[in-house]
Amino acid sequence: MLNTGFWLQCDLLWSLVRRDLSAKYQGSVLGNFWPLANQLVQLLIYTYVFSVILKVRLELKGMPEGNVTFGLWVFAGLVPWFAFTTGLFQSARAVIDQPNLVKKVVFPLQLLPLVPILSAFWKAPWG
After folding, report:
1. Which residues neighbour 83 within 8 Å (Cβ) at sequence distance 6 or greater?
2. For residues 108 and 7, what is the distance between their CA atoms, to the nearest angstrom?
3. Which of 56, 54, 25 lies closest to 122 in space, CA to CA?
4. For position 24, what pLDDT does the model report?
5. CA dihedral 86, 91, 96, 102 (to 10 degrees)
6. pLDDT tens track for 29-52
7. What pLDDT, on the 0 to 100 scale, is given for residue 1?
8. Alpha-carbon distance 31 to 22, whole Å?
9. Measured between alpha carbons, how far is 46 from 72 in angstroms, rounded to an integer?
């Protein structure tokens, strides 16, 4: 059985992720829709470059051939990769960037690298 300390840390982690997501795009024109717009523009660029300019063809059994199928196939691999790399690079600096939380006596430091990782995975597929 999990103790209450675990649930308190999960609640704290969720609060930190929400704070990170709301602070990241607060001053932008599109606000919270900016990650979604960014992902859609990337989808269009990759689809155009690979299927129109480079003429890469994808042959999957049961899937119709076309630019949209190829774009979605590439995008399905790129979204988790971009989320992983973004979260990994930001989590490397998470402890250094939060000196006010590190100085707290009872703050669980192991949560700080998880915040950018979860934030990156949360915003990547859902915008």
Report:
1. 120, 121, 123, 124, 125
2. 13
3. 25
4. 72
5. 140
6. 777 677 778 778 888 888 888 888
7. 42
8. 9
9. 10
Domain ranges of the chain: 29-126
Give the Cβ contact number of residue 58 at 10 Å.
16
DSSP code at position 113? T
- Give residue 96's pLDDT: 78
Tokens of 98: 């939060």
| Structure tokens, 115 | 């915040």
Question: Rounded distance, CA 88 to CA 83, Å?
Answer: 8
C-alpha span between 12 and 5 (Å, rounded) = 10
Q: What is the number of residues in the chain? A: 127
Q: What is the per-residue burial (b if ≥16 Cβ within 10 Å, else e) of 67-87?
A: eebbbebbbeeebeebbeebb
